[in-house]
Design goal:
single chain, 1158 residues, alpha/beta, Alpha-Beta Plaits, Aminopeptidase, TIM Barrel, eight-stranded mixed beta sheet, eight-stranded parallel beta barrel, elongated
Length: 1158
């Protein structure tokens, strides 16, 4: 029944108010227990630990209230605090609130006064409870007489459920068995039903129900599904019969019985005395993954009390220990709840998703479609934390995060609120039929996971992809069954655990020829740091190439491996990085796997064994990256399908587990940028050449659009620079594009090799927003992009190079530009969500973040003059809107990190500012003019962040005055609200700065003409020029003024109280010659300027970044100007990286910590 506030209610409110006014008495209230604020999740007050008389809910009601704005949310919180109301369920638009009968009138008055409407969903809760289950007499009539009492027309007690399980085990002993996996708080058994055809290769699915006591439809549905499986087993499809099913119908037996006997709406378990006067722990907050996080409470009286610690309760502990110790090959974890009609997948602990969320969504959607067709019930599919609310410590998150079970789902069963937790028993069968469809879909997906690897207490699976032939297979005299291949990884000296990776090959009754086999089963092993290949009497040893300068890359002793197979003494060289790339690319070609004898009968087998060994070694290298127990970044699995004439390798998409499970790494850059003071002038300097302090670190930089290429591959969407180069090719020298660029999307290992060759400490690169999230938000999250950046970051760490990530380096997704880009306030929320996604995906491995690169440049040229991407001509207005929204979006990202990530990720956030240093053009130029030029450029952004929290006064006054002259009603320069000023000011952890050149400056004394088009240039009123004595690089704007860098560092020191500075770009352009002496001279002079600023002036400079590690696409100059330390010939398909002399120079700087004389 839908009902808004009635006239009778209004009269009741007036009576209460008159009573209060006339008598002076306070309005009557029942004693209340303070509600603990735990964020957005259902909470309820819990009363005494034990109940001897059944709790009655006469007159209690369930209300639905809008939940789509802050006043309504505040009202709901007030209802819980003051009127003992309980939140049963909610989503983004509404919330279901349970109100006790004694509080109805007062709660109605409160909502009336707040002008908040509501509807009554359940008029009388006790009446709903009384009519929910059939009477005992009806139940007796419907009871099944086949050895058990279960009917699925009524909700049954625990004894009936356990008797039915025993009946199945006795009736179908070859199919069913039961096992007690532990006991509850009050000593009740936790009984699991196993359904299996006995096939040892079966994968396993776990199902449970009743983790929350009052959700009776859950055990009823789980038992219904199990009964349908067993009783109609012979007619079930193969994908259901070829699985092992482990079913725990009642996860919370004490609470379930309590809800039947004493309190129908009881939720938790019955843990008692250890928690004081309040009973019970929410078992779905007690699992060990992210225990104690969002959506939980430390207060025992709360309905979301997480317990005293992870797995503090015997019920959750029993499930954890059973699943982890079981030999079952877990591939599915299905936990059934009510209510709301949701299919939910991880993560629940926060509003984040796993890398394969699109696949989980696909499977969930398929199940929802089938459920809709079966029962006409519409189920919503999505990640738990975002679709409903964050709730840490859930069983599904644990199954995914700890056991790495791919298909981990929570299903919130019927209904959507009409009956809530007291769903009538006549809904059991239709709910069960729907849920069976869900289970069927999951089983189909699990059946497709036919390549399996189990390691370290967890398991990972991959779906096969398209096959690629690797050669002809001729049957020879020596053959072995293609049965199995075991890949063992022994722990190296730095490891404390041993992993075993097993790969099963689906090639029954197929044979292949090999001189190493002699009919034995093949065993391939590759211990980290000590590779070996053994097959009883045969062995293989590895010698690293002596001319390889990188002895630790990729976890190998040398990057090039040479294997001598003693059986025939033929060497087999291949590059492990190339094998890795070849494997990830889906085996399109086989570089460096060539030294077998073509035309011989054994050639394919030789190649095959070599491929297997390479893949085994690659998998083990990846395991070595993060050897913390049960943690794996990326693992590839291979299925070999052999027949008499053709061999195939099929590759599967690697499955990734959550990153912040990995062992933490020590961030040298974070430590350096956090140290204050960094250095005292003239500290620890001895006679001779000045040295960079020990803390000072060196890096190199690139940007996504300039190097990645692959502009339309693997789901990448267009950026504003794709639009510019494709739609306006005339704007770029030689009509060049970044479509291929340096092809770093495919050749990132070559970039890492270059970084390693020089010895850089860190690598600053940017992530392509349009590749990761083409439409700007998580709805378009691209798993291929997640994979790419994960691999890049992991390889950097494997090579001892720290990643420094720039979130946006000019290449805004075109989709967002269509919405206004940085001229629109919409961008602030989009950027915050993008940043949040980056933190959640990569934040455990990335500790230094740059939100934006050079906002002065892309705002003035992109949104003001319209001369660069995104080509918006809005002179005098657009550049200021852009800058304003850049600062707000940066602050939003910063505070998002503070709120959700900093405490455990412990990273730092900055924004890279650019700006020339200025010198007076003549003796007549006043110092104020120089200061004005600096404030209009770098102070425009730095003052709000590091200074007053507002734009420089000279900008505010000048632009406001000019705006008035133009007849405008407000300044063209946006203003910060007080709240925005507080958010922006201080929202940086260090000062990131790009320096290339300087200028002379003088004041433009021309009278301002309001009829001319406004612009930043006209507002600034500065005239820039160059000194004829300054030399120039290939770029027409780049004049060599090294002393300007020292001047700018000191200006920053004085104006902003000597912040920690990271120089994030500095470089020189030429034609790309290998003998680049002018670049060496440029770097030497600028590094000397930095040394002087640090050692003599006391500037807190932490590090220096060279632009760039490789030649790349230089925006409007295309490939006509080269900044790289490594030469790239863009007309050569190989795009090889060739070191220039400057690379050797920079390597010597890093090694000696001095500036060598050239």
């Amino acid at each position: 029944m839908n009902r808004l506030l009635s006239n009778q209610t209004v009269v009741g409110c007036l009576v209460l108010v008159l009573l209060h006014c006339c008598t002076g008495h306070t309005l009557p209230e029942l004693p209340s227990v303070k509600r603990v604020q735990t964020g957005d999740q259902p909470t309820t007050r819990i009363d005494a630990t034990s109940t001897t008389q059944p709790v009655k809910y006469d007159g209690a009601q369930l209300w639905r209230i809008g939940y789509d704005d802050q006043p309504k949310k505040n009202a709901v919180a007030e209802l819980q605090d003051r009127y003992d109301a309980s939140m049963w369920n909610y989503n983004a638009t509404s919330v279901d609130i349970f109100v006790r009968g004694q509080q109805i009138k007062k709660a109605e008055c409160f909502l009336r006064a707040a002008n908040i409407p509501f509807e009554v969903v359940i008029e009388d809760m006790q009446r709903a409870i009384d009519t929910e289950n059939p009477s005992l007499e009806e139940t007796e009539l419907w009871e099944n007489r086949n050895g058990h009492r279960m009917t699925w027309t009524a909700y049954h007690r625990l004894a009936d459920i356990y008797d039915w399980m025993d009946y199945l085990a006795q009736t179908y002993p070859d199919l069913c068995s039961t096992k007690s996996i532990g006991k509850s708080v009050q000593g009740r058994e936790l009984k699991v039903l196993r359904i299996s055809n006995g096939n040892p290769s079966n994968k396993a699915i776990w199902m449970d129900g009743g983790i929350h006591a009052r959700e009776w439809i859950s055990p009823a549905t789980v038992t219904y599904i199990a009964n349908e499986l067993v009783e109609d087993w012979d007619n079930q499809p193969a994908h259901l019969r070829n699985l092992d099913w482990y079913i725990l119908p009642v996860h919370n037996p004490d609470g379930y019985e309590h809800s039947h006997q004493y309190d129908r709406l009881w939720r938790k378990n019955r843990g008692g005395l250890q928690y004081g006067p309040c009973a019970g722990v929410d078992l779905n907050r007690n699992y060990g993954y992210k225990w104690g996080g969002q959506g939980t409470s430390k207060q025992p009286c709360s309905e979301i009390f997480a317990g005293s610690g992870p797995f503090s309760e015997p019920e959750s502990k029993a499930v954890s220990e059973f699943m982890q110790s079981s030999a079952a090959d877990w591939k599915g974890f299905l936990t059934f709840h009510s209510y709301g009609q949701y299919i939910l997948y991880p993560w629940g602990y926060d509003r984040v998703v796993p890398p394969d969320h699109a696949d989980l969504k696909r499977v969930g959607d398929a199940a929802a479609d089938q459920m809709l067709q079966t029962g006409n019930s519409r189920y919503t599919v999505g990640p738990s934390g975002s679709t409903l609310y964050p709730a840490a410590g859930g069983s599904d998150d644990w199954a995914r995060g700890a056991l790495n079970i791919k298909y981990a789902y929570t299903v919130e069963l019927r209904d959507t609120g009409r009956y809530g937790f007291v769903l009538p028993a006549n809904q059991i069968k239709p709910t069960g039929d729907e849920a069976f469809q869900f289970v069927d879909i999951i089983a189909q997906e699990v059946a497709k996971l036919w390549v399996t690897s189990r390691f370290g207490g967890g398991s990972i699976s991959a779906r096969s992809n398209s096959p690629h032939p690797i050669g002809d297979c001729t049957v020879g005299s020596a053959s072995v069954p293609c049965g199995s291949c075991s890949i063992n990884r022994s722990a190296s000296a730095s490891m404390s655990s041993t992993h075993r990776l097993s790969v099963s090959f689906a090639a029954p009754n197929k044979w292949f020829s090999s001189p190493y086999s002699s009919g034995r089963r093949v065993a391939i092993s590759a211990p980290i740091g000590l590779s070996s290949f053994s097959q009883q009497s045969s062995s293989c040893s590895r010698n690293s190439s002596s001319d390889d300068s990188s002895l630790s890359r990729h976890g190998c002793v040398g990057c090039w491996w040479r294997f001598a197979l003693f059986a025939d003494h033929r060497p087999m060289p291949f590059n492990c990085a190339d094998i890795f790339r070849f494997w990830l690319a889906g085996c399109h070609g086989m570089p460096h796997i060539t030294n077998y004898e073509p035309g011989t009968e054994n050639a394919p087998a030789h190649c095959l064994l070599r491929v297997l060994f390479a893949l085994a070694r690659t998998a083990n290298v990846l395991l070595a990256m993060h050897h913390h127990k049960g943690v794996l970044a990326v693992v590839g699995f291979v299925v070999i399908n052999l027949n008499c004439y053709n061999g195939y390798i099929t590759t599967g998409t690697p499955q990734m587990i959550e990153r912040d499970q990995r062992a933490p790494f020590s961030s040298k850059l974070t430590h350096t940028l956090s140290k204050t003071p960094l250095y005292e002038p003239n500290d620890n300097q001895t006679d001779g050449d000045p040295r960079f302090p020990d803390f000072f670190i060196f890096g190199a930089a690139t940007a996504a659009y300039q190097i990645e290429g692959a502009w339309n591959e693997d789901g990448r969407g267009p950026s504003v620079w794709d639009t510019l180069t494709h739609d306006h090719p005339e704007l770029v020298v030689d009509q060049a594009t970044g479509d291929r660029a340096a092809d770093s999307y495919h050749r990132y290992m070559s970039d890492i090799d270059s970084l390693t060759t020089v010895g850089f400490d860190f690598y600053r690169f940017s992530i392509s927003w349009s590749r990761l999230m083409p439409n700007g938000d998580r709805s378009s999250l691209n798993e291929q992009a997640v994979m790419y950046y994960t691999q890049l970051i992991e390889e950097l760490h494997a090579n001892g190079i720290e990643p420094v990530v720039t979130m946006l380096h000019y290449d805004l997704p075109q989709y967002l530009q269509n919405l206004g880009g940085f001229a629109s306030p919409l961008i602030v929320d989009y950027f915050a969500e993008y940043a949040d996604t980056l933190f959640s995906l990569f934040g455990d491995r990335v500790k230094v973040w740059i939100t934006h690169n050079e906002p002065y440049d892309f705002c003035v040229e992109g949104y003001g003059t319209g001369s660069s991407g995104p080509l918006v001509y809005a002179s005098g207005v657009g550049e200021y809107l852009c800058a304003h929204h850049v600062l707000l979006s940066h602050a939003a990202a910063y505070h998002r990190y503070n709120k959700y990530y900093r405490s455990h990720q412990k990273g730092l956030i900055g924004i890279t500012l650019s700006g020339r240093y200025y010198y007076p053009a003549s003796d007549a130029t006043a110092p104020e003019v120089v200061e004005r030029a600096l404030e209009f450029q770098i102070g425009w952004f730095a003052d709000p962040l590091f200074g007053t929290g507002n734009y420089p006064p000279v900008m505010v006054n000048e632009i406001e005055k000019n705006s008035q002259l133009e007849g405008r009603t407000r300044s063209r320069l946006p203003t910060f609200t007080d709240t925005e000023r507080m958010l922006v000011n201080g929202s940086v952890d260090f000062f990131a700065y790009n320096y290339y050149s300087s200028r002379l400056v003088e004041l433009d004394t021309t009278e301002y003409n309001p009829l001319e088009t406004p612009s930043w240039q006209r507002d600034a009123r500065i005239i820039q020029s160059v000194d004829p004595g300054w030399s120039r690089a290939k770029s027409t704007w780049l004049y060599v003024v090294p002393e300007g860098l020292r001047g700018m560092l000191n200006w920053i020191r004085k104006r902003y109280h000597n912040p920690r500075v990271l120089i994030t770009e500095n470089g020189y352009s030429d034609d790309g010659q290998l003998d680049d002496t002018e670049r060496i001279d440029y770097y030497a002079k600028h590094l000397n300027a930095v040394l002087s600023a640090v050692l003599e002036d006391g500037c807190h400079v932490a590090g220096f970044t060279a632009w760039s590690i490789i030649d790349n696409f230089e925006w409007l100059r295309g490939y006509s100007e080269k900044f790289g330390l490594f030469y790239v010939n863009f007309t050569d398909p190989a795009l090889a990286r060739v070191p220039k002399r400057s690379a050797n120079f920079m390597a010597r700087v890093i090694t000696t910590r001095t500036i060598p004389a050239e």
